[in-house]
Amino acid sequence: MDISVRRRSRVQIVHLRGQLRMGDAVDSLRQTLEEALNSGDNRIVVDLAGCPMIDSSGIGLLVKILASSKRLGGNIKLVQPCDFVLKTLRLVGVLNLFEVVDGEDAAVSSFS
Amino acid sequence: MPVEFSAMSQNDGFRQLLHFSIPAESEAVGPVADAISETLSKRGVPEQKLLEISLAVQEALVNAVVHGCKGDRSKNVTCDVQCDEESRIVIVVRDPGPGFSAESISDPKKDENLHADHGRGVYLIRQLMDEVQFERNGSEIRMWKF
Fold first, then answer.
1. Which residue has the higher pLDDT, B70 or B11?
2. What residues of A are in contact with residue B41 (Cβ under 8 Å)?
3. Does residue B1 sit within a domain?
């Protein structure tokens, strides 16, 4: 999985391309998100448009980082998850924990 | 990555398509799930079913590696994929561990578990596959997709 990060209006935007599953993918994303939080960036957008599947390890990571960001007064928002990712998040009951947004612009604006 | 493929064999109307034996490490899991998905795709399994099977296999293999083998790379996890004439698929994942009680797993959708960072794998498998059975004290999982 490829991860690219950029900053926009004090929001960290993390683009994922590939499956978010146990192993290097989850480890790399964990490192990326933890570095963001440790740097004081607690407003994070995760763009899932290029992510066809997320396993329970990936879900656990997102849930954990969501809790961490909220403790710091921030949030994590999910952008454009595909139908199967939405279904997976819904199946395990965590979809409603997240704010899901249609596009990056709307996600960034929602933090204002 | 040491992966073994076996020739096809028959058992109770199900013909073996694939056999894998992988070391118990997380990086060995994804390629197996991908190979299974690719093989089933070539056999005409629809996209939605492929995704569900791929994710269930991913979860089963991760459980075998992490819990069955405690991530000990000297141990092996096996995965067999079979199908019958009606294109029903059964996938069996085995690990050499002592097993566990599938019934004792907490419901990840309960309020007290929703924010946990683990504990969703078996639940997901049961939601994604049509039938799931645990054998050999939980060290073997059989997953059917009809």
1. B70
2. none
3. no
Encode pLDDT of A47-81 as tens digits: 999 999 999 999 999 999 999 999 999 999 999 99
Mean pLDDT confidence for A21-38: 95
Enter the ipTM: 0.93
Distance from B92 to chain A by nearest Cα, in Å? 19
List the single residue in A with minimal CA-CA distance to B28. A23
Domain boundaries, chain A: 2-110
Dist. CA B55–CA A88, nearest whole Å: 9
How many of the other CB atoms lie within 10 Å of CB of B71?
Answer: 13
- Tell if the CB–CB gap between A92 and B108 is shorter than 8 Å: yes
Looking at the partner chain, which of A53, A94, A97 has a beta carbon nearest the beta carbon of B55? A53
* Residue B35 belongs to a domain: yes
**A65 in contact with chain B, both atoms CB, cutoff 8 A:** no
Find the CB nearest A23 among B30, B114, B120: B30
Task: Measure B82 CA to nearest chain A CA, in Å.
Answer: 23
Reported pTM: 0.92
Q: What is the CATH number of domain A2-110?
A: 3.30.750.24
What residue type is B47 in one-letter code?
E
Give chain B's domain count: 1
Phi first, then psi: give them for residue B43, nearest 5 degrees: -90, 5
For the stretch B65-91, pLDDT in tens is 999 999 899 999 999 999 998 889 999
